[in-house]
Amino acid sequence: MYFYAHRLGRKTVRLSATAPLREVRPGVFHATVRLPFARPKRQTAVTYCYREPSPDAFGPLDPLAKRCGSDPLRLPDD
């Protein structure tokens, strides 16, 4: 799993941390990282993603899935 900690409103963000997904119980996964925050803290946003090899029963791939893990990452416009 890839994590990007950034200031609110940024469109290009830098990779902050990565962590493996651990299966806690069937269908429930967990990842833990420590991330930096912007000052003031309330202006910090966290974007996370993981690479999904192909579409599954939950729907089509997220637009970020193809670029997930790249540094820097360009966020889609809202």
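The record above closes out task 2.4. Task 2.5 opens with a second protein, given below.
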Amino acid sequence: MRTLGQDFKAFVLRGNVIDLAVAVVVGAAFGALVTSLVTDLITPLIAAIGGQPNFGELIFTINSSEFFYGRFLNAVISFLVIAAVIFFLVVKPMNYLLERSRREPTPDPTTTKCPACLSEISIRASRCAFCTTELSGTGNA
């Protein structure tokens, strides 16, 4: 009889759980990298064009409450950059590989074998061109 600890160990050591954990860690690191790219490079360029020294500090105030819409815009741009990278570096190549691996359906046969001489003949033939055997149930008639 297996113990709860053995069941948990078997679950954790499955390949897909470990792969998922690695993917989460790499994804978090990639997200931090893109967030830094957007916060430290892209939005300051946009802010410089717009005349603001720091895009992330854009705020408006209502009744002494500050709304940091610049930070929200940073998050939106980060999301769009991550989505674009995933789309162009993961989704498009995978779709291409899946499409390439699909086999074309075999076309309907246009020929068959004569039952008497086994020669290759048209499926529309009513008589074999090689042995002149009359073919029943085939042809244009």
